[in-house]
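User: Fold this, then the next.

Assistant: Folding the first:
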Amino acid sequence: MLFMPIKGLSMIKRILGAILLAGLMSATTAFAQARANQGTITVSDVSGTVRYRVGESEPQSLRKGQTLPAGARVTTGADAHVILAFADGQLVALGAHSRLLVRDFTYLPNDPGKSKVLINLTDGSLFVIMGAIGQRDPSLVQIQVGLKNLAQAPARAPGNDAGVVVLGIATLIQATQGRVSLLVAASNQSFPLAAGARALVQADGSVRTGLSSQVDAQAGQSADGKIMLGRMEALQRYQPAGRPIAFLISTPPFEDLLGELDAPGDVDAPVTAAAATAATSASGGASCGASCN
């Protein structure tokens, strides 16, 4: 038959309209979910005196269940800690006498390649447990330790290993899961760390890598080293059951003033590095191939 009854056309139009409406509703829901997850950071655990600040606002006490936006600065006091749960499942635990700046966090579940995490540990201690972003593409998570006046951020070569950039501050790093590619700005050098290895970075850029026992022996010879060892050991008690830590970082403090939430005004640009591989063998390592400009 060449012609369809008008009644049949009407039914087809209704069916097509319903399909189109369902598609639009699905797309709207997906878009809303993506926006809801973008930049959401929740305080999953907090103990002791912990404060935060966004922009030029006054410092405020941080409470469990509270949400934070990207750009928040968090400071912990003595005998304090906080665990931040990122929308993709990533966990960041901050130890006592620490200062952290979440420079950027974007989570787009429907377009994960455009997701991003950029964290700056000014001083103190933290551990990172990877979420969906780091598990899918570790290079989307970036860690910076310390502050330094930079005319240009060091270039980061592509790679799937954990990445930590150290800027002019003594730092102790433990690779626990996956691999770490350590970039030391002061010496313009990079060092691969296999899971189970540690690195001790001195403020002058000199680096000692090896097994924990070897690095700990050298770190224990200085007061700052003993502080870093103590901080790293204390931080591990907050590891959630069943969630492996990717890596830990600790530094000696610049100061003990809890109210000092502002980073010193000498940061010209954030420094980036590849992030942690979610699950790799405990053996072997890989160089990051990155260099400072």
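Now the next one, as you asked:
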Amino acid sequence: MSQVPQTSTPIADLSYRNYGGPLESPRFRWWVIAKQGMRLALKKKSLYWLMAVAGWYYAVMIIVLFFLEQIAAGNPQGKQATQVFVDRLIWKDQFLHGYSFSQLILLIIALLLGAGSIANDNRANALLVYLSKPCSKFDYMFGKWIGIFLPLLAIMTVPTLVFYGYGALSFRDYGFLKDDPYLLPKMLMVLPLSAMLHSSIVLGVSSLFNQGRVAGATYAGIYFLTNFFTKLMQVAWFTSRGEAPEIVKNLFYFSIDGLQIGMAKAILGTSGSPPFGAQVPSRAAPIGPPNLAIVLPIVFAITALSLLLAWRRVRAVEVVG
């Protein structure tokens, strides 16, 4: 009688039992989710074009100031002309313009980063996989949020720091640092709040749908509809030559775009001025900043409500119907 061959043998290599290497802490499970989201976003070529376009106002201002600086070098008349131009500039307003003119681009970037963040997971029933692993709902939510927040903040911060560095190095003699010694800390306060608001809203909207495109279209629709309303308020303010009721000024900031610009005005302490230091006759006084004690709670309230919506929608339940 032949002997039955043995199909299973003991594991010869038992060195794994004596492993003494590092063990990753489970506290940073959210970072794995965040890195995956950012990795997928960075594969989109359109994101790089949008990143370059987002700081277009700062780029144009640097080019203009560079040529004026070259003209002023060794030329008394050129230096006088440069001084006249720079005297018309309010430096804090140049940062406000750079931030304001990038709002539409930042919306598109937020949609690329976050519209499908939860929606695509809903479509693929991926929440069943995520939350069945040693991954809490907080890990999942925080990881998704960070994956949107960090790239968006970087895209806003880099052009701001480049412009500030150029102005501080090249236009110190023209009063760049004297205009507002706390200008940089103020801008570095505005940018994270703006990235926080965008990241939270797009995450909340994404949690409502099973397709990223539908979520993106919904957020874009909310953005443009509210922005159209604020433009009507702007027209009403200018038509009245600044004599419209105070409610008209406040309603000008009643949109995603307007809320962020109002927040920036309130933190920077400015009502704004024409871009590029242009001397444009105004039909009405500029629309002043809203009350910071009101606008900041609104920003945090919208952020909290958006995240609460996403929190309630994220659940590892497969619906069969």
